[in-house]
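Collaboration report, partner site 2.

Our partner group contributed sequences for two proteins of shared interest, and the home lab folded both. The records are reproduced in the order in which they were received, starting with the first partner submission.
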Amino acid sequence: AMGLDSPIFGRGFDYFGESYFLFRSERAAVRSPGLYTDSAHNYFIDLFAFGGIPLLLATLLPILLVLRGKFLSIPRLQNFSEENKAMEAVIRGLFLAWLGFLFQALLSPFNMALAYLGFLLTGFLYGRFGGIKKNEESSTKGFKRRATLRGGAKKYGKNGVILKVFLAPLFISLPILGFQPLIADAKFRDGIEQGNGETTYRIALSQPKNFQLMRYAAQTFIENQREDLATPIIRQMVEQNPGNLAGWRLLERVSKTEAEKAEIRAKILALDPKNPELKNS
């Protein structure tokens, strides 16, 4: 429903939870008014909700090309030399790992670790199978052609060198950018376990914003009677993400005036209009 509501642009990354209460069915709202989820628990449906049809197609197309290339390569495997057979054994193992990723993706929420694993495996296997054509005479010919292409600079001269110069920083920076959220999560967890409020507060407000970490930090501060630290985090949550229902509920807890609480309740009802408990309150 989220993807169909915005089929071109989607709802945006990390906004599934904020949109869930608007798009859940009346039946779900009546059965479980307080039930919350921030994922469809399906990698591809999550991407469809995040970025609509363009993002979904951009994800599915390389997968279909890998499957096509793998299917076309099956009759050629028997003609490889012993050295190439060893390489093919490695490729088979990676292909099985990739299939495991696909099956896991059907029931897992979208997360960066799973996404990077899938992107890397898909890209590697596409590089292996993507150039295979139906009219190739033999597997040996296909293998030699791919080996030549991997020569890069030898095949394309200066253009190959230029291509590598531009691609090298990209491949170096991608893992750094990808691991940054994982490192922040680890530091945040250490701060919580060690009772280090300064670290927890700093990471909760760091860039790029992670509303889940912000919510967890605010809840932890409230439970430890440090509403002075929780309130700035919560206010940033709702200012930067007005659709964050969890943030508005936390703000209602720490708000000091009845007038503000009334405004917050109206906002909560607007974000969760099908909740029977809110309608009757």
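Second partner submission, folded after the first:
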Amino acid sequence: IRWRQDLTEDRNRLATLLAAAQQVDASRDAKLAKLRGMIEQKCRQPINAGNRKVIVFTAFSDTAQYLYANLAPWAKASLGIDAALVTGSDGIQTTLPGLRKSMSSVLSAFAPRAKERPADLADEGEIDLLIATDCISEGQNLQDCDWLVNYDIHWNPVRIIQRFGRIDRIGSPNQNIQLVNFWPNMELEEYIGLEQRVSGRMVL
């Protein structure tokens, strides 16, 4: 009898949590709205003339899928830029209709100069908004881009530095580059001291 009561209580608590979670969607997502505003401002007022490229990193493929679903159509319609998604588990997506669905094709379309894309592939188009997980945080030259966003902060500070290293590279054609971090709320920050650790490593 007690076990059944406990199960019922668990079910009721889960139902309450689910109902609360279902009230939060993209239209009420303040963090997503802030990111959208930043991207729009960057594209309309580039920090380097004519450069509208942005990389958005997240640790989770589910988050990357969510961001792509809510940013790619908007970016195409409002800003006239094409977007792509690169994750290790969910594959490749892009708003460029003629682009091959491979990581090398997407990254070459995002950073044609750094990736030395052949001239005969230029008609495939160019990507200006790249949403990705850490599957591309190492070993990729993406310094055509001058603006990188960490939508969430990885627990390992080195990973943040590796992400920024995609655009903070020798041979960058950009006069300025920008790193944007979305820090967690204060309760979580106080619990793990993340900002202090990451900021300290970045200063070093």
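Feedback sent to the partner group on the second submission included the following. The first strand starts at residue 54 and ends at 57. DSSP finds seven helices and six strands in the chain.
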